[in-house]
Amino acid sequence: MSDVVITVRGEHEIRIAPERAIAHLTIRAEGQERGAVVERMAALTEPVRDDLVARKTAGTVPEWTSQRVSVWSERPWNNEGKRLAPVHYASVDFSVTFTDFTVLSWWAGEVAEREGVQLGWIEWLLTPGTRAQTEKDVATQAVGVAVARAEAYAGALGLSNVTALELADVGLLTRQEQSPAPAPRMMMAKAAYAADAGGAPAVQLQPEDIVVSAAVEARFVAR
Questions:
Q1: Could you tell me where the beta strands, DSSP code E, fall in the chain?
Q2: pLDDT of residue 177
Q3: What would the pLDDT profile of 108-128 be if each residue is shown by its tens digit?
Q4: Are 192 and 209 spatial neighbours (Cβ–Cβ below 8 Å)?
């Protein structure tokens, strides 16, 4: 039998528990007078900022950031289709990083009860070192799957010598109509919120595992 070209795809994924979380929250105030709204925003923001400063000093919050206050106005419509007097708004966004998810749960429950505070979403992440090593491992495993498939196909044809010709991320081996898919890739974990009927923490955070996956295409020649 003459040489046979075999083209295969190898995939692999790893599920790993998040190591850190970034909580996003917004503090917002509104009113009829622009100056009063800005002052109210400052009053609502101060205790949250002071708490974060204290937590960072204590080491329970590795880092946090806040944006400048955004101020804007809108003129709402009433039921009769008439424009009403302007309503002024002011808001500021915070991003807070946690490595202890129990501390995050307690903090989320406390901050969510503050006036003007809206707790947004939680990003669940891996540390850079873990992410890099996991991406390396999952890519290696994907290549191994491709090699095993090529050897299986060759064996079914009665061939035993398999040599790699090309290896690439999905979509880069040959021209395809579909857009290339990056490999490896990491899917962010989601957060599930559960209200606590009794005491603290008022918010229980249950992150799903982060999925790191890789896919490759490879071309081999079998003899």
A1: 4-16, 20-31, 63-66, 70-74, 87-98, 117-125, 162-169, 185-187, 191-195, 203-207, 210-222
A2: 42
A3: 999 999 999 999 889 999 999
A4: no
